[in-house]
Structure formats: C-alpha cells, structure tokens
Amino acid sequence: MRVGLLWRQEWDPVTSPTTVATTARLHGVFAAFAALGVSAEAVVYGDDRVEQSRQHLLELDAVLVWVNPIEQGLDRSLLDPMLREVSAAGVFVSARPDVIAKIATKEVLVTTRDMSWGTDTHLYRSAEELGAQLPNRLGALGPLVLKQQRGMGGTGVWKVELDARAATVDEDSPVLVQHAQGEPRAELLTVGEFAKRCASYFAAESAVMVDQPYQPRLAEGMIRAYLSHDHVVGFAHQYPRGLMPPGPDERPTTKLFERANAPAYADLRARLEQEWVPELQSRFALAIDELPVIWDADFLYGPRASSNEENYVLCEINASSTFAFPEHAMPAVAQAAVARIDDRG
C-alpha cells in the first residue's frame, strides 16, 4: 500500500528528503500512517513540476492533499486538473476537486441557506450586480459580511454597513467597510467604490461573491468542527480578530483543540452527524467515502433560541487544506484513507 501526502513547496519547503517524515508540518500524519504499518510518501508539489507529480501520484494507491486555494499569489488551476486525472485513473484522492467545488467554496452558504445552519445569504456574479443589489440588502438586513468564493486568512472577506449619515440607499450611499485580513480598520467608501474594489474577485471564470448577515456574537469566538468523512473527530474554539471593532482585543490568540466528545460541543456534534452532514450528502449526492478524510466546518454563535439553546451559523467549510488539526484526530484520518484503499481492493 502506497499513500502520498501532497502539499505545495511554498507551504512547507523540504530541506532534507530523508527526514521529511519527522520534520514536515504533517509529521503527525506521517506518524499516524506508520502506526498502521503504512509508509506515507511526501509529494511536494509546485506548478513547475506538474508532470513529475502526476507520474508520482499514478504510482500510488491514494493521495491526501493539503494545498490552499490561494497561496502566496498561487492558485490550484494547474493542480486540480491533474488531481482529477489521477482520480479517474483509480487513485483515491482526498479531497477531490469536484467535492471541494460542491461543499467547500463560499457558494455553499447560498446553496444551503435553507438548512437550519443557514442565514439570509445572497450571491453576486459580478461587480455590477454587487453595486446594484448590495444597497437594498444593507438597508433590509443591516451589517453584512461579504466573501470571495475561495480564499484563506481573511483575504477577500469584508464587513460592510451603511454609514449613519446615509440619506439614501443606492450606489452612492456611504458605507463603512472593514477587511478581515490584517489589523481591524474601518474605511468610509460609497457602495459603488466598494464594488469596484471587489472587481478582482470576479476575474476568474464562474467566480462569485456571497454575503450573509454579520453575527453580533462574533466576540464569543468561532467553533471549528473537524470531520473525517461523516464523523466529527475534534473541535477548536478560536477568536477571529479580522472583523472585530478596531481597538484593543484581550481575547485569547491561540486556538484550543478539544476532542470529539467534548461536553461543550455535544449538541453541535449531534446536529452535524445526525442532521447537517446527511443533508449535505443528500443535497450534493455524495456518498460517505466521497467526503474528505479530513475537512472542517466553521460556526459562529447565532441568536439564542427562546429555550436558551445555542443556535449555530455556518460561516465556512474548508476541505482544500485542513491544517492545523488536532493530533488526536490524525489516526482517524489515516484509518479512513486505508479503509478507502481496502474498499477498492
């Protein structure tokens, strides 16, 4: 059995191929496979070595991929067609690009907005649509968070709200905009100026932006649920800084990993495993083994229900490069990959 772990050279350059299993960022995943008697192989990808990587992958039984949608100005436009090709040749690929496209772009917030994790979310297909439709959305719903289709680290994620001095609701209306990347800083623009600023997010074919209502409980943090196929394997509670009000922030700066059976997230786990993941599978016609061996879903706290039970709002699904994730979850990831290879005979 031969399993590859693929990542981009810009994400984690290899200085010594002989020690990569112990020195790479993914050293815990290498160790999890080793504990199962499988020697995982590093596949360090670069856009200048597509053919070399293709030939390597075609020799493997499976490849698990950690490549961000945007990495130092690079994207997956060359990688994804190659992964589709090796998958069609019989190599188990996780996550497959077509699965990422279904569940792990911001568009999933629109396609699942009627699920109980959803909110009144809207899709824009051009900067012109954004400029024309955003004013009425802001007028009706209040502050919104707008997100480009694929990104990382807060790039292309904006909080937008009408300025209190706005006399009309149109493209000339003043809005306060705040980018989630970098230190929090509010800027005053018109809706039209903001739409022009977002034009680059629509440059790629079929690129879109989505909006969803800003969640006032953001200060309480975000919960990241880690899954292997259809089962939760861990949680992390973290405190995003990007869309918080400018000024001092005394909340924790580290994420706290928790096991899947953490009592604080028992309800969230039950809803994911019993309601949301099955509904996601049904909606996108995905079998359990088509779901990634490691992926995560990010939730914000929504308005509390009348019973004081928590209400969770989906803000993102990640499947391109789910890292870091809890070390205690790594054996489950390795076991899931080995099981998929065994299923294929």
Number of strands: 15
Order of strands in the sheet with most strands: 5-10-6-7-8-9
How would you spell out the order of helices and strands?
EHHEHEHEHHEHEEEEHEEEEHEEH
Low-confidence stretches: none
Main β-sheet description: 6 strands, antiparallel
Structural class: alpha+beta
Mean pLDDT rating: 94
> DSSP strand (E) fraction?
15-25%
Number of helices: 10
Intertermini distance: 11 Å
Query: What overall geometry do the principal axes of the alpha carbons give?
Result: globular
Helix fraction by DSSP (H/I, runs of at least 4): 25-40%
The value of Rg in angstroms is 21 Å
Keyword list:
345 residues; alpha+beta; 5-stranded antiparallel β-sheet; 15 strands; 28% helix; globular
Give a structural overview.
Helices cover 28% and strands 23% of the residues. It is globular. The chain is α+β, with helices and mostly antiparallel strands. Strand 3, helix 4 and strand 4 (92-94) form a beta-alpha-beta unit. Helix 2 packs across helix 10 (330-343), helix 3 (50-58) packs parallel to helix 4 and helix 7 crosses helix 8. The model has no long low-confidence stretch (mean pLDDT 94). The strands form three sheets. Strands 5-10-6-7-8-9 form a six-stranded antiparallel beta sheet.
